[in-house]
Amino acid sequence: MEGVLHQVLSGIASGGIYASVALALVMIYQATHHVNFAQGEMATFSTYIALTLINAGVAYWIAFVITVAVSFLIGLLIERIVMRPMMDAPVLASVGVFVGLLLIINSSTGWMFDYMIKTFPTPFSGAPVLFQGYVSGHELGATFVTLVVLVAVYLFFRHTKLGLAMRAAAFNPVSARLVGIHVGWMLALGWGLAAAIGAIAGMMVAPIVYLDPNMMAGILLYAFAGALLGGIDNPLGAVLGGFAVGIIENLAGAYLVGTSLKLTVALIIIVAVLVVKPSGVLGRTVLSRV
Amino acid sequence: MPALLEVRSLHAGYGETHVLHGIDFAVEQGGVTALLGANGAGKTTTLRAICGMVRSSGEIHLGDDRIDGRPTEDIVQRGVAHVPDGRGTFVELTVEENLRLGAYIRRDRQGVARDFERVFGYFPRLRERFRQQAGTLSGGEQQMLAIARALLLGPRLLLLDEPSFGLAPLIVQEIFAIMHRIRADEGVSILLVEQNASLALEIAEQAYLLETGRIVVSGPAAEIRRDESIRRSYLGY
Q: Does A289 contact B138 at a Cβ distance shorter than 8 Å?
């Protein structure tokens, strides 16, 4: 029984990581109806920016804020420069661009910051705190930060005019223009916000898994599984999905398939969800009267 | 009556296809102007050209401004509300969200609240279905929602693209009856594109007939309605 509790708590801790990256995926999906596969690499790059600032002597939370702001701008610029010309292109072309971005950003990160594994500081105390020492202070703090971002994203999309405009622009750009929404700005804003969320996720993840250019590779897949499980159009669903994936992965790894097949579990989750309920557990199934 | 909208020598098309071949027409302040014609005549293209949604050349005057060549968002800011063919409903969003989007560019919250009440007065069914997903509404209700959304802009000019399309005759009667009320109460100028000529001529003061991108008949709607030869050869009744 203790073993199961341990795995579950561990799962919640790692699930928090997946949840925060899943939020970035949801943000960009809500704004653009594309899944940005380069999201993880952008988050890694942002984390390196933070590390550079911290090593230069900048205080942690100031470096945090600067990194988030710079990431927002980078996301905005990528949309304007790379994605804008793709506006009328078929979806598959966009997917090609995302994969290309993934590779370019990954290599650039390695080239600019080298491939040695680095430690990343945490603003929370690292010592094991809660639940008989199974959850560290950082894991608790990171989960808290994730929940704060979740609430902010949820409130933004459901209860602000701008959030509604972003969703409208993604669902029906033509009609959105006809009510006066600048669709181009909405897309750019979506990318900027997603990059900012990704930066936060990266800075929360790095103290646990250590920083190297490939830090996000496995995490992105789990985050993707979590977002799909919970519903990629639903921030709360994505976060719950992220936690669920973390728990499932740990329990499966400990009792079912062993650690070497843990990643496979993530893939199986993705396929199973898409087969049974494509919109995800909490996703909204859109009905359309013909 | 001065014209709110004046269009001169409007050419428009899609890619290589040239659809409008230099048309002239006007919409009078506070009046209803009908733009009639068969499928493919270029009626929808005309409305899209006014809104900057399609490549065009020529002069389009709205009041004292020239709006040809301006982006759609800009033209909407100047008070042009377009109810597109097919309704253009945000089907994944709720009725409430669709209506709020109609008032997106407005800053006067009290005015918007008043207009919400007025719109519910015209279309009480929308109040009943306020929190429903818009895609689950019937065709007639979605048409009402589209018109309501346009009215919430507080527009000077309302462009209606085939409001009767795909709707049962009884629903069409209901919607046109409401449109008579809107036209009487709101003071908004209306450019009505319709294939259903008899309905359109009942509500309009002026009418233009479009055939393969050119205006072939124009004049007071009452005259066109009375003229049997025009009705038979162009309007099919």
A: yes
* Beta carbons of A37 and A97 less than 8 angstroms apart: no
| CB-CB neighbors (< 8 A) of B81 in chain A | 178
Measured in angstroms, the CA of A179 and the nearest CA of chain B are apart by 6
CA distance A230 to chain B (A): 18
Class of the domain covering B3-93+150-235 = alpha beta
pLDDT tens, position by position, B56-73: 999 999 999 999 999 999
- Ranges of each domain in chain A: 15-227
The pLDDT assigned to A129 comes to 60
Q: Mind telling me how many Å the CA of A204 is from chain B's nearest CA?
A: 34
Per the CB < 8 Å rule, is A175 touching B153? no
Amino acid at residue number B151: L
What count of residues does chain B have?
Answer: 237
Give the full edge-to-edge strand order of the sheet including B206-211.
B80-83, B157-161, B189-194, B32-37, B206-211, B214-220
* Distance between CA atoms of residues A50 and A63, nearest Å: 6
- Subunit contact A165:B101, Cβ cutoff 8 A: yes
Question: If pLDDT is split at 50, 70 and 90, which confidence band does A250 have?
Answer: confident
Find which of A179, A183, A289 to mutate to test the B interface (most B CBs within 10 Å of its CB): A179
Residue A203's Cβ-side half-sphere holds a number of Cα atoms within 13 Å equal to: 29
Give me the total of CB pairs closer than 8 Å, taking one residue from chain A and one from chain B: 72
User: What is the spatial distance between Cα A177 and Cα B72, in angstroms, rounded to a whole number?
Assistant: 6
- Beta strands B32-37 and B3-14, pairing class: unpaired
CA atoms within 13 A on the CB side of B133: 10
Q: Is the pTM of this model over 0.90?
A: no
Of A42, A86, A90, nearest to A67 by C-alpha is A42
Picking from A171, A177, A182, the nearest residue to B90 by CB comes out as A171
Cβ <8 Å between A286 and B73: no
Nearest 5°: CA angle at B7, between B43 and B208?
45
Q: Are B54 and B205 in contact (CB under 8 A)?
A: no
Which residues 79-118 of chain B have a CB within 8 Å of chain A? 81-82, 84, 88-93, 97, 100-102, 104-105
Q: What is the pLDDT of residues A147-174, one digit of tens each?
A: 898 889 889 988 999 999 999 998 999 9
Domain residue spans of chain B: 3-93+150-235
- How far out from the chain centre does Cα B191 lie? 5
Distance from CA of B136 to the nearest CA of A (A): 5
Residue A245 · residue A15 · CB < 8 Å: yes
Among candidates A213, A235, A182, A217, which has minimal Cα distance to A20? A235
ipTM of the prediction: 0.92
